[in-house]
Design a protein that fits this description.
Blueprint lengths: L3 H9 L12 E7 L2 E7 L7 E6 L9 H15 L2 E5 L11 H16 L4 E7 L1 H16 L6 E5 L11 H4 L9 H12 L4 H4 L11 E7 L5 H14 L3 E6 L6 H4 L4 H15 L3
Helix pairs in contact: 3-4
């Protein structure tokens, strides 16, 4: 069995599947002590920043795995994106990642007053986004103006029916991976108090959820959408036929990936 460093190295190779968008400037930065990267496109929309939270089951992922994808998103949305390299489990279990993301958000509120701040989260990054919104509400800080999720992993109980019904269709994830990763991330924390799917939310930002039909995490999106639409009328769930987990990471140039980028662009630009 590969150790965690070998798994991370292998996961990071996803970033080599296609070139980054050359016109997008990349700059490393410490934001409130958290290693982060600014992706700045040409003609970026003024006064708008989107925080990107990557997937990788809370244990994998970095700017190497996701940088190419994020550069294309920044280019399409004409928006500066801040990619957060939050602390990873198992070395840094809950609440380390959550604390890092919240620290970055607080810093942006302080350093960029008047800016519209949004979130994009894929897979585990989607769950982290929900947890961050919950903490923002607790701290009574201004909410992000919009949130988009790609194939989010929101329910750490890992017992939704799509784990079984989509098992044969999902070559990327399964209970054996997600169950172990959830255990490593929680590291003894009480699931009910930590699980993004179980957090009490009084409201939620404008929301776009996108998910493929071939995902074991399919029900995570459906179930959270059912919750969110009762909190936020401007909530949309888009189901992409025959797509796999976080499909733009594998090929941003596919028809389905380009459709997703167009949809995200329209979503973030539609909100005043």
């Amino acid at each position: 069995m590969k150790n965690i460093q070998q798994q991370r190295e292998e996961f990071d190779q996803l970033g080599n599947l296609y070139p980054a968008e050359a016109s997008v400037k990349l700059e490393q930065s410490l934001v409130n002590g958290v290693n982060s990267y600014w992706f700045t496109p040409e003609n970026a929309i003024a006064d708008r920043i989107i925080i990107y939270l990557h997937g990788g089951v809370f244990a994998l992922g970095s700017v190497r795995s996701h940088g190419s994808l994020v550069s294309h998103i920044a280019h399409k949305l004409k928006t500066t994106i801040l990619f957060v390299e939050y602390a990873l489990a198992p070395e840094h279990p809950y609440p380390a990642a959550n604390n890092d993301v919240f620290a970055v958000y607080k810093a942006l509120l302080k350093d960029h007053p008047g800016y519209k701040i949004g979130f994009i989260g894929d897979s585990a990054g989607g769950g982290l986004t929900v947890s961050t919104v919950s903490e923002i509400l607790k701290q009574q800080l201004p909410l992000p103006y919009a949130v988009a999720m790609i194939s989010p992993w929101i329910d750490l109980k890992c017992d939704n029916p799509s784990y079984e019904s989509n098992k044969a269709k999902d070559p990327i994830l399964g209970i054996h991976i997600l169950g172990g990763a959830a255990k490593d991330y929680l590291a003894g924390a009480i699931l009910g108090a930590v699980n993004p799917a179980d957090l009490a939310l009084s409201t939620f930002p404008s929301l776009l959820i996108t998910v493929g039909t071939n995902e074991v995490l399919f029900d995570d999106s459906l179930n959270f959408y059912d919750v969110a639409k009762g909190l936020q009328p401007n909530s949309t769930l888009t189901i992409y036929d025959d797509q796999y987990h976080v499909w733009p990471l594998a090929n941003v140039h596919s028809e389905a990936s380009q459709r997703l980028l167009i949809e995200m662009d329209g979503f973030f630009n539609s909100i005043p």
